[in-house]
Specification:
By secondary structure, the protein is of the alpha+beta class. The protein is 32% helix and 35% strand. It has eight helices and 15 strands. Strands 6, 10, 12, 13, 14 and 15 form a six-stranded mixed β-sheet that branches.
Amino acid sequence: PVMSLAVKPAETKMQNNFAKALTKFTKEDPTLRVKVDSETKETVLSGMGELHLEVYIERMKREYNVECISGQPNVNYKETIAARAEFDWLHKKQSGGSGQYAKVSGYIEPMSEEEIKELGKPNEFKNKCIGTNIPPEYYPSCEKGMNDAMHEGSLVGCEVEGIRVVLQDGASHAVDSSDMAFRICMANAIRETMKTAQPSVLEPVMTVEVEIPSEFQGAVTASLSKRMGMIQSSDMNDDGSGLKLEAHVPLANMFGYSTELRSLTQGKGEFTMEYFNHTPVPRDVQNDLMEKY
């Protein structure tokens, strides 16, 4: 899924049908996901694009009589790092009774796309501890702590990918160390260290194919450039009447494009888009996202 939309039924009495509809739709379509945001308590629908989500909202209205109120669509950003950084983190709490104590040290480093493909998962945890400074039974907790940090990054609270975490050493306390202490310690260590490892926010970029009559070429090319699109190719068909443009455009800039394309081409243009990859966002956009977070 690359696009999410907050939805809620217009009236509370529709809540039952709303839930039924969502259950049925997610069963029949694996690319449609529903989750409840833990902070805002909103129901968030995620799908493959604006049209995909619009179709389901329309179907709810027709098949289940549920009027939906939908919010501003959101794009699924990710976070990553560009440099290696060492960490040495101590977590201790002492408040009567047994406290919490854990210390971990090691480093995080970026992974290349080839490595991610080979692994088949976006992040890796490597344990290079020698000896029993960290008792072996706490290694799984350290990995869980890493996963916690990967679910919610330190810049904008999005998923993190492309990071290898290497645990080299640490310390424990006979009484105060626990699974929880190591988990919290590891998560905080990674979140803090990410800030020093040239972190960046990645946004989904789509491959957009536009088919238009050739007389509208100028206007359509300009509108794609205005949406920060990079034109990859443009092919004229044999008799020169139609044109096929291919461009890479950040998904965040594609909202409302279908209406714009129709008005630019008197309803003759059409476009398809599919996910291409995640690339770093421009510095100013990153700062805006960080402020919002």
